[in-house]
Amino acid sequence: xxxxxxxxxxxxxxxxxxxxxxxxxxxxxxxxxxxxxxxxxxxxxxxxxxxxxxxxxxxxxxxxxxxxxxxxxxxxxxxxxxxxxxxxxxxxxxxxxxxxxxxxxxxxxxxxxxxxxxxxxxxxxxxxxxxxxxxxxxxxxxxxxxxxxxxxxxxxxxxxxxxxxxx
Amino acid sequence: xxxxxxxxxxxxxxxxxxxxxxxxxxxxxxxxxxxxxxxxxxxxxxxxxxxxxxxxxxxxxxxxxxxxxxxxxxxxxxxxxxxxxxxxxxxxxxxxxxxxxxxxxxxxxxxxxxxxxxxxxxxxxxxxxxxxxxxxxxxxxxxxxxxxxxxxxxxxxxxxxxxxxxxxxxxxxxxxxxxxxxxxxxxxxxxxxxxxxxxxxxxxxxxxxxxxxxxxxxxxxxxxxxxxxxxxxxxxxxxxxxxxxxxxxxxxxxxxxxxxxxxxxxxxxxxxxxxxxxxxxxxxxxxxxxxxxxxxxxxxxxxxxxxxxxxxxxxxxxxxxxxxxxxxxxxxxxxxxxxxxxxxxxxxxxxxxxxxxxxxxxxxxxxxxxxxxxxxxxxxxxxxxxxxxxxxxxxxxxxxxxxxxxxxxxxxxxxxxxxxxxxxxxxxxxxxxxxxxxxxxxxxxxxxxxxxxxxxxxxxxxxxxxxxxxxxxxxxxxxxxxxxxxxxxxxxxxxxxxxxxxxxxxxxxxxxxxxxxxxxxxxxxxxxxxxxxxxxxxxxxxxxxxxxxxxxxxxxxxxxxxxxxxxxxxxxxxxxxxxxxxxxxxxxxxxxxxxxxxxxxxxxxxxxxxxxxxxxxxxxxxxxxxxxxxxxxxxxxxxxxxxxxxxxxxxxxxxxxxxxxxxxxxxxxxxxxxxxxxxxxxxxxxxxxxxxxxxxxxxxxxxxxxxxxxxxxxxxxxxxxxxxxxxxxxxxxxxxxxxxxxxxxxxxxxxxxxxxxxxxxxxxxxxxxxxxxxxxxxxxxxxxxxxxxxxxxxxxxxxxx
Lengths: 167, 801
Known about the structure:
The structure holds two protein chains of two kinds. Chain A is of the alpha+beta class. Chain A has five helices and five strands. Chain A has helices at 25-32, 88-95, 105-118, 124-130, 142-160; strands spanning 4-10, 13-19, 51-54, 57-60, 73-75.
């Protein structure tokens, strides 16, 4: 099948790849761009292990064609940390034991990354609903909810107090 | 030795046993830097895709590979005929049966592996699999195990015709696998004859699937120049797989390396050896290139490792005071088309004989028949020790039913029957020696915490208003940590486990175990054990598992055996190191060993303050200044053969409210008290309990692999198969008591499976308790809204007055 040139921004850096029109975004990310943090759990958009951020929305990259990312901005788990500093969500998942086998974790983090921009001060019920597109088989969700709640609080504190650079 | 503030501080710095320290595995996972099998990419790697049967039972008339082979990028299409010259078209199962690697002349279950395509990438492989033409002649199908042994039932396993043993004892019908009996039949019959009260109930543990978020897969890589084989594989038992691969391939075991990388959950799904692994290995050997095989979710739910499918009849004999005098159980076990359960080889029904539970039952008898049906093969332990979920489900439902029969409170009947703390070690009627327990204390604590009396009062008030509220109780005892090699083996290999610890000159540690973590956090907990034993901070202790070329031989991680067996081996190996360090300390301090005492992280000369050597100093000395005649170095290995199983227990209470009109069940409260003996990392334990309860919720409230009468599997994707989201999943409250195991070096018992084993009966007891108030005796799982509504409707409870 003829390949097509695709250009998009991945975690802030421009990338160019050649892919068949039928190729899924998750396969291009994992196999051609070497970003294996994004996982595949079901191929049917149910489990959310493949969640990435595309143009400011959470998408399940197992049911997005790579060509649909043309010209877009993609954020994966590998792009959450900035300048070597973990994202508050990553810290919170570690502190609150929000992961066990780690397989759902990248999708959870990337979904929560978008969810907290949509709703910076969620209730537990809102977190559960907002994260309901992501399945976890290990944690029973309670510590994931706690981690998202605590990360949200941390991020609100940070945005309220000016950083050194801004001051 | 008095502990001072200074020693306490030193001890805390170790972050050893008892510390809720953060996990060492998490930094890589939260940054997307895990290394799961599908992340592995080798030069020249090809992809395998399976051609699977659309029929539950059919003869294969012909297979035409031409169109598939003609597709550019396809390297091979293999069928049973291609594997026959290698004698690899069948493989032995862990249960003494054999399983078709690729269907040999006929298929026996839907989605069975018929051919495999090897191609440049997964897209081409999938295309080519569609192009393989298979001509089938359909045969009559059996999906109901109760019909499997009918005289006129079609023969599922033609390869076994004429054989009166399918690997686990005598069989009496072509679709019969084994009969297994345990207990005293005569004494049990007498107990029933003499009983004031008897009850009998049919109970179903439906067919479900462990369903880890990562499916099964492998990358097989045969190096023709070196003649060695490396297989990266989602295996909960890589060393056992290495032995099986050696036996199958004829390669020396030293030329076979199995690597379990990071594993995205196992829950029993990843214990067995599957056709996908075997064909990938064969293809790599034949083609001389690495071959990757990754299951799709549908393949996973349809073919590898279902659990349960136990059709049970329980009977209790008791007196009018509710004291149980006898238990009788008959089980029909549906093992599907091949007997490929993954349990200790000599135990066809696993450890089901733990079914006397937490109760002092003087007489018991169990009879299990295993049968073949046209369903996927397996019968694995889904987040439990072998068949323990089925056993606990049976006794916990039966004791509730007895309470109902006698109009007795469901907590009270448990107190009347508990094995008492002073009875341990306790010999059960079915042959186990329970190590330790205190069941009444656990249940009392839980009942107080939830205000049980208040709940029963509320329930009565609601009953009067026609509202359904249920209170479920479960007081379970598990049997885990398989196991003593005199009782347990897998294909003749005793079920010990192992640890090898090496202390480097500068005092940090590398340790390797024969187990393999799949989310349990071994890299953290094993390091904590070593930290406490050796006085080295757990941060300085590196744990590695899963590579058979570096780790000592072990039987793997399943049946909650890592802490009971691998953790014990770790403690014992560390103690060997400390014993050597003591000799070195005596040498350096010029005293006798008896003059030394151990304090947190150092040996001190008794009564001589300041005369001491830290483990750090002793590590250095081990490589340059040891007593005369002593070998240099500081390392040890331990192969631990446990003297007994461990018997974790717990008391759970679940409160549900059922909507009379829709059948929706709302879990209002779930309170779980677990006793796993010594607690190594309380944070990890709590996480494991949350996760196990969520899986129990899934099983009790919705999971089901249903086959229609034509042998078609219904609901084998996440569209239909119930995996709860954060929205449905209840909130968990956890609690604990500590009753240590007397035979485990640390007193630990294992915990990760308790919440699944104890949770399922607790949910189903809660739903049934709600129905009991309205005269309904028993409803089987799963309690979906539809199932519950059907019960409501059949009993006229959904009528609006």
